[in-house]
Design brief:
The chain is of the alpha+beta class and 500 residues long. It is built from 15 helices and 22 strands.
Length: 500
């Protein structure tokens, strides 16, 4: 571990503006999980003996390790608003070195560690009870864009990445619909979009990672270098390492998009047309949206066509021979950035209506293509607006197995699959949170019986045996990677994949 001539036990709070000494951590009491603050630390060397035991000094940090009530409040919640597991300390790193130093320290003292990006997890996956949470939002630089690649820090938001790449005429091929998520956050679970049927998940478009392992080692990895770590970290839910940097593949970006919102008489017709549109590659982005209407669910197939000003699309050809409701098409033009950033306005609408702070117990499952009409149709027949609360539409994204390459991004064993998203919000006029979570579990089990999998952001309890079944043939390699790269077992306990 790198050392510094400056003693971390010195009274650093006196030179750090705005940080109270009782909140600044400088050490740990040996044999306990109790942090020592600058206000409590005795003067002198790196360790001190007292009636309360000796103090293990922190490694020198470019940033800060904080504790106190504000840390409890910040770290104990996430976007889901269902699970509360506050950390005992929050690392605000000043560099990637801080991440490595702190992970090594925690591994030595058996302190669990989790990583926080935008904290958009839904069931406490980024939380860590009585451990250290690392706030990666401070490592948010877009370092370089050239030659169809972007070098970024893991705490960078996809919105910032897109803004930087567009100045060079490029875009990441897969962007999450909500751009204010961090690169490391979405790569830890997969990263999906309406372009995934063509380009795969975001993890399929990463060329290289810089990772801090559970032993505190900083390692570069790719398909050609340290591949086992590369495959264990992409969609690995933070179990084998903390991403601190990534090199992303880019594709040429369009200037404009034309959005076709096509209303359908029923879900099977929309799915049949979606399959046709994929085979014929008419659109770049495809999703089915289902929203409650006065007489049941309204089904809308959204197809988005990229184009440039000099070559507008042929609207009639794009929607020719589709089974949509006659006259049920709405066509809108936007810039590519406006379309990519559209969910930000929807989030703002929820906040303006006072709905953003309610719990969000979402459920996301991958349904086998051969079962999608019957399964989704059966679930939708039982759903009411009260089961959703006032929130986003229900979504159905298509995937083709040929575009998916990462072993931990688990999909049904079929040529095509569909991500079925029920984006619930437990508003006062809706079903209770516990009822929503129970229903999520039922949907998960029903889909699993059909050969389906789930996207690991969902809000329901998942046991270690459930995880083993979920990873299937990849479980042995994943378990070996966990033992190899996180030998102390301190990383990311939130999902419960490898219980401590």
């Amino acid at each position: 571990m790198e050392q510094s001539n400056q003693s971390p036990l010195s009274f650093r709070a006196g030179i750090i503006a705005g940080i109270a000494p009782e909140n600044l951590v400088v050490g740990l009491r040996h044999g306990t999980s109790r942090w020592v603050t600058a206000a409590e630390a005795p003067p002198g060397g790196r360790t001190q003996s007292s009636s309360n035991g000796s103090i293990a000094a922190l490694p020198y940090l470019d940033g800060l390790l904080l504790t106190g009530e504000a840390v409890v409040q910040t770290t104990g919640t996430d976007y889901g608003g269902v699970v509360r597991r506050p950390a005992s300390a929050l690392l605000r790193p000043g560099s990637a070195r801080d991440v490595a130093r702190m992970v090594e320290f925690c591994a030595h003292h058996d302190i669990p560690v989790a990583v926080r990006g935008q904290s958009h997890t839904l069931f406490g996956q980024s939380q860590v009870q009585d451990g250290v949470q690392i706030d990666m939002r401070l490592l948010d630089r877009v370092l370089d864009v050239r030659d169809g690649r972007a070098e970024v820090e893991a705490g960078a938001q996809w919105r910032s990445v897109l803004q930087a790449t567009l100045t060079h005429g490029y875009t990441p091929p897969v962007l999450t619909d909500y751009l204010r998520l961090t690169v490391g956050g979405t790569l830890s679970v997969g990263g999906v979009s309406g372009t995934s049927w063509r380009y795969g998940a975001q993890v399929d478009n990463v060329e290289e990672l810089t990772v801090v392992t559970g032993a505190g080692e900083t390692v570069k990895c790719s398909e050609s270098e340290n591949r086992a770590l590369f495959e264990a970290v992409l969609a690995g839910q933070g179990q084998c390492g903390v991403m601190v940097g990534a090199r992303l593949r880019l594709v040429p970006a369009p200037e404009l998009v034309r959005i076709f919102d096509l209303v359908y008489p029923a879900l099977p017709a929309a799915i049949a047309d979606m399959r046709r549109l994929i085979d014929e590659e008419r659109f770049e982005y495809l999703v089915i949206l289902m929203v409650p209407g006065p007489q049941g669910w309204i089904t809308v197939l959204q197809g988005v066509k990229w184009y440039n000003r000099t070559s507008p699309p042929d609207d009639d050809a794009l929607v020719a021979d589709l089974q949509m409701v006659p006259g049920g098409a709405t066509v809108t033009d936007q810039t590519y950035f406006q379309f990519s950033d559209r969910v930000l306005a929807q989030i703002g609408d929820l906040q303006g209506a006072g709905l953003a702070d309610y719990p969000h117990p979402w459920i996301d499952v991958f349904v086998p293509g051969s079962k999608v009409e019957s399964f989704v149709g059966g679930v939708m027949a039982q759903l009411t607006p009260g089961d959703l609360g006032r929130s986003f539409p229900i979504l159905l994204y298509p995937f083709r197995s040929g575009a998916l390459r990462r072993p931990l991004f688990r999909m049904p064993d079929e040529p095509e699959s569909y991500l079925f998203d029920i984006l619930r919000t437990a508003t006062p006029d809706a079903a209770g949170v516990e009822q929503m979570i129970r229903h999520n579990r039922e949907i998960f089990e029903q889909n699993r019986e059909l050969g389906g999998t789930h996207y690991p952001i969902s809000a329901f309890q998942i046991s270690a045996s459930d995880w083993q079944a979920h990873y299937g043939a990849a479980w042995t390699a994943f378990s070996e990677a966990k033992r190899r790269y996180d030998p102390s077992g301190v990383l990311t306990p939130g999902p419960g994949i490898f219980p401590r």
